[in-house]
Amino acid sequence: MQTGGGITMGRHVTVNRLEIPKMTRSALNNTYKCQASNTKLVPPAERSIRVDMLLKPLSAALSSKPKQLISNQEYVLACNVEGSVPETDIKWMQNNRPFTKGKIKLINNSSMVSSVLSFRPHPDDDGTILKCEGSNPRLQNSVLEDSVIMNVLYPPQVTLSLGSTLNPDDIKEGDDVYFECHIKANPREHRITWSHDVSIGRGPR
Question: Record's Pfam families (predicted)?
C-alpha cells in the first residue's frame, strides 16, 4: 500500500502514517501490517492490527406476512436481521407497544440473527400492527423494521342488554321495552336472529 514518507520524531525514531479514507464495512476484520527494515542482515520488524467496526443492520424482514390469522390458532413468525455487528437487538411491538404474548427464540449465525415468535392471536389483536425492530444496541439511529397488519378471524362475540335509556327497576305493564344486541365478529355477521322462550327440544315461540 502506498504511503507518504516517514516523519522524524527524534533521534532514531520515525513515524509513518497510513490513511484510509471512507472505510466501508467490507474492511471488517481486515488485517494491516507495518513492516520496517534497515539492513539485509536481519529480517524486517513488523506489527499488525485487525480492524474491528460497529455496523448498523442492513435489513430487517419478517419471514412471512399472513393475510389472515385464525383466533387461538398457533402461528410462527421469524424476524431476520442482517449486517449488525457486533451485536443485534430484536424487539417485537404491537401498535408501538412491546408485544408480550407468545414465546420468543433467538437464532444466531455468522451473518444473520433471527427472532422466532410463536403466538396465538386473540380477537383483540384484529386490526393491530405487529412489528419487529432490528438494531445495533451500541449505535444510535440504527433501527430497521418490518410489520404486518393482523387480520384475525374469529366467531361472533355477542352481548345482550336492556336498552341503555331504560331503568330496569321502573318497568311497568304496558311500557315499551327494547333490547340491544352487540355483535363483534370478523368476518362481519351476515344474519342476526332473535328468539323468545327457547327451551330444549322446542323451537322459538
Answer: C2-set_2
